[in-house]
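Thread title: Can someone regenerate the structure for this chain?

I was given the following input by a collaborator and told the matching structure tokens would be attached. They weren't. Posting the sequence so someone can regenerate them.
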Amino acid sequence: MSIDVLQNQIRKRKNPSMASFFLDRTLIPPVVLQCECSVPKAYCNYTKQLLQELKDIVPAVRFGFGTFAIYGAEGITALQELLTVSKDLGYYVLLDLPEITSAQEAAAISEAVLDDSLWSFDGLTVSCYIGTDALKPFLDKMGSNDKDLFLLLRTGNKSAQELQDLLTGSRLVYTAAADIAKRVGQQLIGRSGFSRVAGVGPATSVDSLQTLRSKYPEMFLLVDGYDYSGANAKNCSFAFDRLGHGAIVCAGSSIIGAWKEETEADPLAAAVSAVERMKKNLTRYVTIL
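Best answer:
Regenerated them for you:
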């Protein structure tokens, strides 16, 4: 797949939302946890059921590598199984890589995930904050595959402004990161008009989303943190262009753990209801043409 396929799937379902799965035992319904001998197996089985229920509603899913890796070999096996199931069900699949701290790590990780059939995904999330030499190994391989790269630009946590909103010359730090994304993705613009080098922005900061959308019209945006305090559908709408294109909004615990708010409800039904509410709220402000 590519960013063009993701945009088409959003248009097909008229739903610009993404479900994020990170292995957190507190999000597993107790009845599921009690039936399994380990946390990774319980989470895997619960998530596979969720993926089946959501496949005709949600166009894309996201998995956090680190939250599975901390459970060791069993966690990695669960992640690989869920990635494969997601692809087989027709989702666009995004994988968050662990933090890369050197160019050497970037080269090793890019070779492992992009050249190994054990990992099924369509896009990777990578931080660009150690510079372009950590991006180059991934960019070099994009010409020979149809994978996308999502670069972390501005996060939605409360303290993000302590670093990411600082001035560096005439730019804010996160716009300097966005300039890098624009430069390295200039030759990878698809039929949809968006580059295969996308950006990650915050659902909690209207100013950041307005800046990213206006300054970088060819950048597809993943709006992260829909379920963070301070985020809402109206904020997220500023990431989309006038056609309702160019962005997708990501939520995690509010979907996976929706059963917590409806203790008598079936966990799967609660998740479906949460996704439907998210879709309804977003499309109040975003008309997808």
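Strands lie at 17-21, 60-64, 92-96, 123-127, 148-152, 167-168, 171-172, 197-202, 221-224, 247-251.
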